[in-house]
Every structure is written in C-alpha cells, then in structure tokens.
Specification:
Length: 346
C-alpha cells in the first residue's frame, strides 16, 4: 500500500544521513530539497564536529549521531543517504523498513542483488526509492539527446564513454575497491546514466576487463586499491553497443566524455561543448560545434516533490537506477570469470 500523498511540498520533512566535509554534500542536498519546497528537519552524522556545522547551516535542525535515533525520534519523511557506496544498501533498507522515503547518492548500491533487496523493501513499505541522478538533466546530455533524436548523426551505431589520465588514485575511501565498488563506480555511473538516455533496446550481455596492481603498493589502500583501469562492453538487443573505460593509466586521454558514432557522423560530448564530425561521399570533413546549455539539476528534487505531492511520474525510478549498477556488477563479475555474462534486467 503506497503512503498517502502530501498536501504540499513544505509538508515533506527531509533529512540526510552523512554531513561529511567532502564536497559539503549534506548542505547541498538539504538546500536543493529546500529549494524544491521541502522542509529540512534532521541530520544524522557520526562526526560531532560536522553536526555542529549542520546546526550552523540550518539553525534549529535536529541532529543525531545514530541513524536508529533519527528514525525513532524524528518526524522526517524523506531521507537522503550521503555515505560511502558500500553502506547505501544497508542504510536505505533500514530507512525503508521504517517507512521513510529514500534517496541514495549515486550509485544506488554496488550489486544487483542489493538493488533488488532495496526495491523489494520499498514496494513492501509503500515508500519511494530513488537515486540522486541530478546529472540526468545536465545541459550536455540534454543537448546530445535533442540533437541525436533530430537525426544529427543518423542512426546510432555505438557509444564510447571514457574518462582517464595517468594519475595515482587519491588516498581516500573512493580509492578503496571494497568500499567504493571499483574504479567504474564513481564517474562510470554518471557516464552510463548518460549513455542509457541515448541508446535504445534491452541490455543483452556484458563483458568486463580490468588491470590491477601498478598503483597498489603506492597508495595507503595497497591491495584494496581500486583497479588501475577497467573496461566494460555492453551489447543491446537493438544491435547497438557501448563501451565504458575509466583509467588511471591513460597517458593519452580521449576527447569528450561520450563519443557517439552514427551512420552519418560522430557526436563528441563534453560538459561545456558539443561537436559533430561528419564526412560526405566525396570524403570531405565537416565540423560543427557549440556550447551546451546550462544544467538543470534542480529538476531532480522538484520531480521528487511533485511525485510525492501531485503523483507526477518519478523520472529516476529505482528500476532505472538499477540499470547502470547491473552493467557494472556484470562487468566486474565478467572480468573475474573471464567470460561474457547475460543480463538479468533489460
């Protein structure tokens, strides 16, 4: 049974789990929820110093050092989880079972099985589960989808997503494979979410490849360091395919975040600019480019508020959020097993 709708956005009391100093994301999430009309109510954070910062940022907000206490004592309706990746599933399920709506910072979780369990808990409790894919509304992907759907490069054949440089992973939790999930799980989730807006067809199978060891003895994480480089190939029932490569070994980084090849041209997408490269039958090359529009990430929490108040369709559903995780999960298992793996979810 779904929970009743709220009368207005301000009726939705919101909180965050995690108010760490990195990127000041706790403050940013609460501000964005507030801008969508919702009411900041609670913060749970194990660092007492950061709770003091939260109180300064939002005078009167309730603060808790334990999630259990927040769920038992606070009237918070919606909780956003801003903690390391390997804690998302456990904390989300705890909140869902307590009848709270949940947003997870990306990625939703690390494994497909974790996503499945979270989705099942949300359905049982009649609560909403989503992932903070605010980059779904980045100007670069909005422009790419618009131009590609208008036929700018003809029928799409393949999509290459990549990010890399020759660099030592930072000595923090995002460089720990057991905590972060692997090198593909940070920016790779964003790039896959972009890609899945462009490609059609159901996911058929995934192959994964990885290289580990070069940086392992040069970081504090040693054997637990994320891979030096990982590469995934996903094939779709439409006949299209995508590749994803994230690397700390790339001495010749590729142009663009996405390179989308069609029958009539190639679309290069960066955050700031787009470029279309095409050739005619005489072998002449044409290049056109331009700036991308501003991002509209505010639409994430606005859509969530409209969903909870007005019943508007949720854009970033848990099933949509599971799609990139399923690709990453299959890629990691494929790399370990040395064979392609069939997809369970489209």
């Amino acid at each position: 049974m779904a929970k009743p709708r709220y009368q207005q956005p301000s009726s939705i009391k919101v909180g965050v789990i995690g108010y760490g100093g990195a990127f000041n994301m706790g403050r940013q999430h609460l501000l964005e929820m507030q801008q969508a009309g919702m009411t900041p109510a609670a913060v749970a954070e194990i660092d007492a110093a950061r709770l003091e910062v939260a109180t300064a940022d939002f005078p009167g907000i309730e603060t808790y050092s334990r999630v259990e206490d927040m769920l038992r004592k606070s009237n918070v309706d919606l909780v956003t989880i801003i903690t390391p990746h390997n804690t998302h599933a456990r904390l989300a399920r705890q909140c869902l079972k307590a009848g709270r709506h949940v947003v997870c910072e990306k990625p939703l979780a690390i494994t497909t099985a974790e996503c499945d369990a979270m989705i099942k808990d949300a359905r049982r409790s009649g609560t909403t589960l989503s992932t903070y894919h605010n980059r779904h509304w980045d100007g670069c992907i909005l422009e790419a989808v618009k131009r590609i759907r208008a036929g700018a490069i003809g029928e799409v054949v393949r999509l290459e997503a990549h990010m890399g440089r020759w660099s030592k992973p930072g000595d923090w939790w995002r460089s720990s494979k057991s905590i972060a999930g692997g090198i593909l799980y940070d920016w790779g989730v964003h790039l896959l979410e972009y890609a899945l807006q462009v490609l059609d067809g159901d996911l058929a199978e995934v192959s994964g490849f990885s290289k580990t060891g070069f940086w392992a003895n040069q970081t504090a994480w040693k054997e637990d360091t994320i891979e030096d480089e990982a590469f995934a190939v996903a094939r779709f029932s439409s006949g299209k395919w995508l590749t994803l490569c994230i690397s700390h070994l790339d001495s010749n980084p590729k142009r663009g975040l996405l390179e989308i090849t069609g029958e009539k041209g190639t679309y290069l997408m960066d955050h700031g600019q787009w470029e279309i490269i095409s050739r005619n039958l005489r072998g002449e090359t044409k290049r056109v480019s331009g700036p991308n529009p501003k991002s509209e990430g505010w639409r994430y929490y606005q859509n969530l508020a409209d969903h909870l108040v007005k019943g508007e369709p949720l854009v970033i559903t848990p099933e949509w959020s599971r799609r990139p995780i399923h690709i990453l999960d299959l890629a990691g298992r494929s790399a370990a097993q040395g064979r392609s793996l069939k997809a369970t979810y489209a």
